[in-house]
Every structure is written in structure tokens, then in C-alpha cells.
């Protein structure tokens, strides 16, 4: 999924990362100080929206303390006021280890899968499990790698590998292993060569490349390599491995058996029978195994965040399901976002009585009151001119554009008049226009040209309205 890709890892202008500029790529976090209050200026890409950010910071603390379960956070506010950005900032703050599963309300509508099934799947994507296992492994630097070939008994031609001999070296000594050909395949997959430090799990035969032995560190290498020291101790040893998986991973691993790796297959062995579909029964069995692991202290539950954007797109069926799911013992933290005011709750428009013309139940944000009651609501407010200007400046910087001061002022006014998103979107076309003119900096003229080419939503609606009154057709 990973929205959490560009975390606040210094935010250095590394070429590849700057090159991929998406709508929210300037957002690196919530920009809060030690005291939980919003930092002034463009902290981590966030500007203004102070109280909403502070509220999200509090929620973040609650989530970290695992005290937010059973409730939901609802971000409500007009279009382009930074709701999605807030949720993504929160995801960055949570870090890589806590699962974050973003979805959009309309994702539940599929002709093949039940709506609640889609919701359930996403719920399980947002619940993590940190598993500590002690594994029997062979670890060391490869000093010998010799596959032994034999005649293929099935066809007269071609050869197969009958076994492979590997010698592993540690500080203490060297050990030669004679291994199954299937392990040779995984060695090939990991692109292991002599001089690499690897470990092989004794039970499953999974091979993991740790890095290149630092004895080779003086070698000239084109690619960036990770050099690791020669492992200490014996080649054959017990090692603690920590793994982060989500319940959804476990579901999938057990529904689609692919054969032996890691925790997935361990659970797979415990859950009897192989299935090809994730059923409620399978989930139940997995939950039981997970519960046992937690009781034994092998695993730790890491409730993550499920973010449902455009939540008004869900219908009554989904909302009642959400109510129940929020109250279950293992539930992730739920964040909802909507830009609707009072509107009809989907799925209540038609009450099933023939001939009736039920208009549906109107509720704030299109969310039924009982769910709304379980929500903590945070409002995002429309931006003022200075904030719009700051966001625009930041965006221009992220996209590597230069812009004249008067053009920036004009763009800010456009943003105030129509929306922040509209003026953000004008930046790139204006930059292209200015490049065509041979300029390196966006000037007012470029901007005016781009405004005349791309009209905003309100202007478009006005055009339509005047056309409609003229002849009722859009032409
Ligand atoms: N406070 C802010 N600081 C920096 N950038 C912001 C801020 N608020 C919004 N943005 C940027 O403005 C754009 C629009 O914001 P966003 O998509 O979050 O709006 P939204 O509230 O989700 O709107 P909608 O209701 O239409 O989905 C995005 O590119 C976002 O990154
Ligand atoms: Mg949004």
C-alpha cells in the first residue's frame, strides 16, 4: 500500500523521491512540537489548520497508548481543506510498524464481493501482529556454493540439480551443508553469491540474504551494498526473529497455500485444511490461533488505522456493520472523512413499500446518528489568504517551480475565490506555459493564460447555468 513510504527520514532532496510528486507529497507529518501544539510555519509540510492538527496529535497519542479503540475520528470540513492530508500526516507519524489502511467509501460497491466483506477485509488489513519467534537457523558468510547436477529422470535431455553444497563461515568456524535443490532455488531468487552473509531457516528452508560480508568492503561496487560483519557464534544456532504481519496477510496466506515460509505457514499448520477462499470460519480459526499466540506471549497485537475517505458514500448496511465492528475486541482505530453537510444516508432512500416515495433519512454528514455518536468529530476550516499562499509556495518548491511574487498573489486570490485545490492545480500548467515562452519563472502572464484555459468549478457551473437558461443544452 504504502502511503508511509516517504516518512520523515530527513526529507533529503534525493532525486528519485522528488521526481515523483503526488498530490500530497509535501505532507511529511502533522508538524507538532514536543508539547503537542502545532509548530509555526511549514512544519513537516503542514500549514495552518491548527486546531485540527492539535486534535489529530491527541488522537495519535491515544492510538500509541492503545486507548482509542471502539471510537472513531471523523474529519469533517469543506472540500480542499486538508482532511485527506491530515489523515496521511497521521499515517506518517505512526511510522512503518503500525498498519495504515486507506480506503474510499465507494470501494465497497462491487458486483462480486459483499460490501461488508470489503469492509471486513480492510479492517483486518489494519490490524497488525508482531510475532517474536526463535528459529533454528544456519547463518554465515558463503565460502562455497556448488550445485551438483544429475540426469533428469523424467526427460532424456536436460539436467536437474540433485543437491547443493554450501559452506558457511562465522567467526568461530566453517560448516559445510548439503541441501535440498528447493533451497538452491530460493538462493537463486535472493541473488546470493559467494561472499554474502545469509541465513537459512532450518525448518522451512527459507533463505534470507543479510548483506555482503564486510571483508569485501574494499571492492569497487557500482550498486550501493550493505556490508555486514561476519556473524559471531556457531553456524547452526537459534535466533530471535521479529515479524510484522497483518491479520489480512494471515488470512491470505492460509487461503492460498503457497508452501512454507515464516509465521504464515506456522499458523497454516495449526489451522487445518487448505482453503482457497477467505471465509468467516477461516477468520475465526485464525483469530483463535492468534489469541493463543498472544496469551503465550509470542505475539503482540498492534491495532493500526483504517482510514475511510468520503465516508458519506457508505450505505446503511455498511454503517451498521461499522457500529458492530468498532465494538469488537480486536478492532483497529477508525478515521473517517467527509466533506458533506446534512445529506441523505445512502440506502435509506427507498423503504421497500411499493408506491411510497421515501426521501430517505437526512443526517449530518450522511452518517446515521448512532454511528455519529461513537465519533469524535474534528472540523477543518476553510483557509485564509496567508495560509493559501504558504501552501502554494510549498507546493511550488516541492514541484521544483519558481514563481513571481505577483503571480503568487494572483494565485492566492484565485484560491480564495474558488478553492485551494484549484489554484494548486494551476501551478503545473502555468509552469509549462512559462517554459514554452522561454522563461524559468512563472509570471503573471503565464498564470493568466492558464486561468483562461482551465476554468474553475464555479465558473463552469455558471457557464452551464447560463447555457441552460438559453437553450437547455450544453453546447
Ligand atoms: N494545511 C495544509 N498544509 C499543506 N497542504 C495542504 C493543507 N491543507 C491542504 N493541503 C493540500 O491541499 C490539497 C487539498 O487537500 P485535501 O486533498 O487534503 O483536501 P480534502 O479536505 O481531503 O478535500 P475533499 O473533501 O475534496 O476530499 C492537497 O494537495 C493537500 O496536500
Ligand atoms: Mg479528500
From TrEMBL:
Q: What broad class describes the main subcellular location of this protein?
A: nucleus
Per UniProt, the keywords (alphabetical) are: Activator, ATP-binding, Chromatin regulator, DNA damage, DNA repair, Helicase, Hydrolase, Nucleotide-binding, Nucleus, Transcription, Transcription regulation
EC number(s) in its UniProt entry? 3.6.4.12
Signal peptide range: none
Q: Which GO terms describe its cellular component?
A: Ino80 complex; Swr1 complex
Q: What class of enzyme is it?
A: hydrolase
Asked whether the UniProt record includes Cell membrane among its keywords, one would answer: no
What SMART domains does the record tag this protein with?
Answer: AAA
Q: Where is this region: Disordered?
A: 1-23
- Name one matching Pfam family: TIP49_C
Q: Which reaction does it catalyse?
A: ATP + H2O = ADP + phosphate + H(+)
Localization (cell): Nucleus
Every copy of the AAA+ ATPase domain together lies at 69-373
Which terms does the record give in the GO molecular function aspect?
ATP binding; ATP hydrolysis activity; DNA helicase activity
Self-association state and partner proteins as the record states = May form heterododecamers with RVB2. Component of the SWR1 chromatin remodeling complex, the INO80 chromatin remodeling complex, and of the R2TP complex.
Job of this protein = DNA helicase which participates in several chromatin remodeling complexes, including the SWR1 and the INO80 complexes. The SWR1 complex mediates the ATP-dependent exchange of histone H2A for the H2A variant HZT1 leading to transcriptional regulation of selected genes by chromatin remodeling. The INO80 complex remodels chromatin by shifting nucleosomes and is involved in DNA repair. Also involved in pre-rRNA processing.
Q: What is this protein called?
A: RuvB-like helicase
Species annotation: Meira miltonrushii
Amino acid at each position: 500500500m504504502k502511503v508511509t513510504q516517504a516518512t520523515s527520514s530527513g526529507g533529503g532532496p534525493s532525486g528519485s523521491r522528488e521526481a515523483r510528486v503526488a498530490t500530497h507529497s509535501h505532507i511529511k507529518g502533522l508538524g507538532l512540537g514536543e508539547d503537542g501544539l502545532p509548530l509555526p510555519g511549514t512544519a513537516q509540510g503542514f500549514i495552518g489548520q491548527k486546531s485540527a492538527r492539535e486534535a489529530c496529535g491527541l488522537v495519535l497519542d491515544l492510538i500509541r497508548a492503545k486507548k482509542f479503540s471502539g471510537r472513531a475520528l471523523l474529519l469533517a470540513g469543506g472540500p480542499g481543506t486538508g482532511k485527506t492530508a491530515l489523515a496521511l500526516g497521521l499515517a506518517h507519524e505512526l511510522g512503518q510498524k503500525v498498519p495504515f489502511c486507506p480506503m474510499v467509501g465507494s470501494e465497497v460497491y462491487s458486483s462480486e464481493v459483499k460490501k461488508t466483506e470489503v469492509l471486513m477485509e480492510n479492517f483486518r488489513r489494519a490490524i497488525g501482529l508482531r510475532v517474536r519467534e526463535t528459529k533454528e537457523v544456519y547463518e554465515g558468510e558463503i565460502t562455497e556454493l556448488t550445485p551438483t547436477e544429475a540426469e533428469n529422470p523424467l526427460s532424456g535431455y536436460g539436467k536437474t540439480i540433485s543437491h547443493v553444497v554450501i559452506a558457511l563461515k562465522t567467526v568461530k568456524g566453517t560448516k559445510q551443508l548439503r541441501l535440498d535443490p528447493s533451497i538452491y532455488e530460493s538462493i537463486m531468487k535472493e541473488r546470493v553469491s559467494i561472499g554474502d552473509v545469509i541465513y537459512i531457516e532450518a525448518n522451512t528452508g527459507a533463505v534470507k540474504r543479510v548483506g555482503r560480508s564486510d571483508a569485501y568492503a574494499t571492492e569497487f561496487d557500482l550498486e550501493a551494498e550493505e556490508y555486514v560483519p561476519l556473524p559471531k557464534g556457531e553456524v547452526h544456532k537459534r535466533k530471535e526473529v521479529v515479524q510484522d504481519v497483518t491479520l489480512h496477510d494471515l488470512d491470505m496466506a492460509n487461503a492460498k497455500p503457497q508452501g512454507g515460509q515464516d509465521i504464515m505457514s506456522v499458523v497454516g499448520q495449526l489451522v487445518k485444511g487448505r482453503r482457497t477462499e477467505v471465509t468467516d470460519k477461516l477468520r475465526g480459526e485464525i483469530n483463535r490461533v492468534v489469541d493463543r499466540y498472544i496469551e503465550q506471549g509470542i505475539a503482540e497485537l498492534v491495532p493500526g488505522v483504517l482510514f475511510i475517505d468520503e465516508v458519506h458514500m457508505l450505505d446503511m448496511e455498511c454503517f451498521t456493520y461499522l457500529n458492530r465492528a468498532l465494538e469488537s475486541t480486536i478492532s483497529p482505530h477508525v478515521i473517517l472523512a467527509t466533506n458533506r453537510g446534512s445529506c441523505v444516508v445512502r440506502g435509506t432512500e427507498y423503504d421497500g413499500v411499493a408506491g411510497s416515495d421515501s426521501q430517505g433519512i437526512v443526517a449530518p454528514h450522511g452518517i446515521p446518528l448512532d454511528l455519529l455518536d461513537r465519533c469524535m468529530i474534528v472540523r477543518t476550516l476553510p483557509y485564509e489568504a496567508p495560509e493559501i499562499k504558504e501552501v502554494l509556495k510549498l507546493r511550488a518548491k516541492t514541484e521544483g517551480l519558481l514563481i513571481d511574487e505577483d503571480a503568487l498573489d494572483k494565485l492566492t486570490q484565485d484560491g480564495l475565490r474558488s478553492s485551494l485545490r484549484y489554484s494548486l492545480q494551476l501551478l503545473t500548467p502555468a509552469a509549462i506555459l512559462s517554459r514554452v515562452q522561454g522563461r524559468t519563472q512563472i509570471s503573471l502572464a503565464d498564470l493568466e493564460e492558464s486561468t483562461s484555459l482551465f476554468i474553475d468549478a464555479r465558473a463552469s457551473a455558471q457557464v452551464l447555468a447560463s447555457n441552460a437558461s438559453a437553450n437547455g443544452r450544453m453546447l
